[in-house]
Amino acid sequence: MTANPSVTEPVARRLDVAISATRLAAADTLRWFGGSSLVVDRKADDSPVTQADRAAEAILRRELLAVFPDDAFLGEETGATPGSSGYEWVVDPIDGTKSFIRGVPLYATLVGCRHEGRGVLGVVAIPALDEMVHAARGGGAWHVRGNAAPVAARVSSRRALGDCLVCSSDFTSFGRWSGGADAGTAARGRLESACGVVRTWGDGYGYLLVATGRADIMVDPLLNAWDAAAVDVVVTEAGGRFTDWRGRDSIESGDGIATNGLVHEAALDLLRGASR
Questions:
Q1: Given CB 3.0 to 4.6 Å as the disulfide criterion, which of 115, 137, 232, 264 pairs with 259?
Q2: For residues 266 and 159, is the Cβ–Cβ distance under 8 A?
Q3: Pairing mode, strands 241-243 and 256-259
Q4: Which residue ranges make up each domain of the chain?
């Protein structure tokens, strides 16, 4: 990675390691992708998990903590390990396990890092498409396809909701929003009616589309910290905005929305109507 004076040396070092670790973990998921040997188990919340999820997270934990043993680590599959450095890795080895199980190539490997509670870097990889966006706070976002050189990732310039493409992981999940089923469903209806194109290109892939200007809005009524940590930095550094549905800069509210920034308040107005 080329040195950027706006990125501190500790963050730059972590980004280099994060990119390498993400590539290793992402490549490992392809051992099972589309195959017949995949074993699907159910977690306590009835969501699916596979040996690919566990193996990829083990790689991320091993690679990241081998270089930064004093950092904390939070993984979807293995939980939290405390640290003493002030840095915390927040990872989701396969974001979109339901897609992965079905051989749909839109699942993601997500690696974020936070310092004293603030996101400082993010890596979003789409293993089956060989596509990645990585970012460090203050250093911009960079889009990589295959072995090509990174190019700057930038959000779109659309200003009218009617021109926007909105994505979500699962539109039925609006009915399970923490603010209430009816309110969430109503928010979905307002957003769908206001936007020009609606697609369920979700999970980490939807956020990557926003960061690269191909989609304008990505919204999730159900979102965990490991789903949001990486995309928060990636979208922001690409010129966009990531908040919860109330407009707060938080990855722990249980919901989230990423936009090109230009339509963020208009989109939030539609979602805020769900909480009145």
A1: 264
A2: no
A3: antiparallel
A4: 9-152, 161-275
Question: Which residues are bridge partners to 243 per DSSP?
Answer: 257
The CATH class given to the 9-152 domain equals: alpha beta
> What are 275's two structure tokens?
């909480």
Instruction: Put the strands of the sheet holding 79-81 in their side by side order.
Output: 79-81, 72-75, 87-95, 108-115, 118-126, 131-136, 141-145, 151-152
User: Across the strands, what pairs with 242?
Assistant: 258
Task: Read off the amino acid at residue 232.
Answer: D
Residues 6+ away with beta carbon under 8 Å from 123: 15, 18, 19, 22, 109, 110, 111, 112, 132, 133, 134, 135, 230, 234
Instruction: Tell me if 205 sits within 8 A of 108, measured CB to CB.
Output: yes
Over its length of 276 residues, how does the chain's per-residue pLDDT go in tens digits?
A: 445 768 999 999 999 999 999 999 999 999 999 887 899 999 888 899 999 999 999 999 999 999 999 999 999 999 999 999 999 999 999 999 999 999 999 999 999 999 999 999 999 999 999 999 999 999 999 999 999 999 999 999 999 999 999 999 998 899 999 999 999 999 999 999 999 999 999 999 999 999 999 999 999 999 999 999 999 999 999 999 999 999 999 999 999 999 999 999 999 999 987 443
Which amino acid is present at 228? A
**Is-above-0.90 flag for pTM?**
yes
The tokens describing 75, both together, are 């993984």
